[in-house]
Amino acid sequence: MKKTFFYIALGLALVAANSCRKLDNYPGPNAMLQGQVIDTLTGKHLQSEVSGDNGNGTRIKLLETSWSDNPTPLYLATKQDGTYSNTKIFAATYVMTAEGAFVPMVQTTPVGVDRSQTVVVKPGVNTVNFEVEPFLEVAWVGDPVLNANGTITARCKVTRGTDNPAFQQNVTDLWLFLSPTEYVGNNNYDNHYSVHIAFAGITGNDILGDTVTLTTVGGSLPPKDYFLRIGSRIDYGLKQYNYSEPLKLNVPAK
């Protein structure tokens, strides 16, 4: 009797193992998806933070419609220069949008807007770009300067990136972010030396179009390479930042 039970159990185990082999016998991802998020006003890559599924930077949203009318979203991270690349994508049909500190590509209010792209992703390399209107344009005015006392002074200008009044909320923050790594922004900065100005109500709108001067705090900077970046944001949605390009400045040893 024990032998009978043993052979039954062995047979069931073999069937289960064989079933698992069949379930796992699907082809893996065979497509690469790459592209860039472009600022429609400047024609340049939209600056952001390194992002992910839960990140505050720009991300690419994919809805695979090949198998479902109500698919679970898949998100691709972007680099801080507005480019993205992922080699682990299944060939299929996707509805794609970009999400970040810019006018939403899909809107239900105040008017219906749908600028999503339906893309048939094929095996091999696929390129999909997005053009967006950032909430704010953030730019350097000249290069940052190392002062005699070891601080850094930078000048910048912030302007509206869209003329759509539905996305012209009050400016709430202005930062001079400082970091010893190139991945500088609200997600990575040295809080001992970075400069933050918070605005209440409409007061932040006064900086729009003007050249603003910012000087690092915390005294003399230790000698090393620093990466600097200006960030600003409006009071909308997730309150994500718009950014300037990062710049590198060396503080030499005395």
Provide key terms for this protein.
254 residues; mainly beta; Immunoglobulin-like; 2 domains; five-stranded antiparallel β-sheet; four-stranded mixed β-sheet; 9% helix; globular
Topology:
Layout: H1 2-23, E1 31-39, E2 59-64, E3 74-77, E4 83-89, E5 92-99, E6 106-107, E7 113-114, E8 117-121, E9 124-127, E10 130-132, E11 136-140, E12 145-146, E13 152-160, E14 171-179, E15 195-198, E16 211-215, E17 224-234, E18 242-243, E19 247-251
Parallel strand pairs: 1-9, 1-10
Antiparallel strand pairs: 1-4, 2-3, 2-5, 5-8, 6-7, 11-13, 12-13, 13-16, 14-15, 14-17, 17-18, 17-19
Structure characterization notes:
Helix content is 9%, strand content 40%. The radius of gyration is 25 Å and the shape is globular. The protein contains 1 helix and 19 strands. The longest helix has 22 residues, at 2-23. The N and C termini lie far apart (88 Å). It is mostly beta strands and 254 residues long. It has one helix at 2-23, and strands at residues 31-39, 59-64, 74-77, 83-89, 92-99, 106-107, 113-114, 117-121, 124-127, 130-132, 136-140, 145-146, 152-160, 171-179, 195-198, 211-215, 224-234, 242-243, 247-251. It folds into 2 domains: 31-132, Immunoglobulin-like (Sandwich), CATH 2.60.40.1120; 136-251, Immunoglobulin-like. Mean pLDDT is 90; it is low at 1-17. The strands form 5 sheets. Strands 14, 15, 17, 18 and 19 form a 5-stranded antiparallel beta sheet that branches. Strands 1, 4, 9 and 10 form a 4-stranded mixed beta sheet that branches. Strands 3-2-5-8 form a 4-stranded antiparallel beta sheet, with no helix packed on it. Strand 17 (224-234) and strand 18 (242-243) form a beta hairpin.
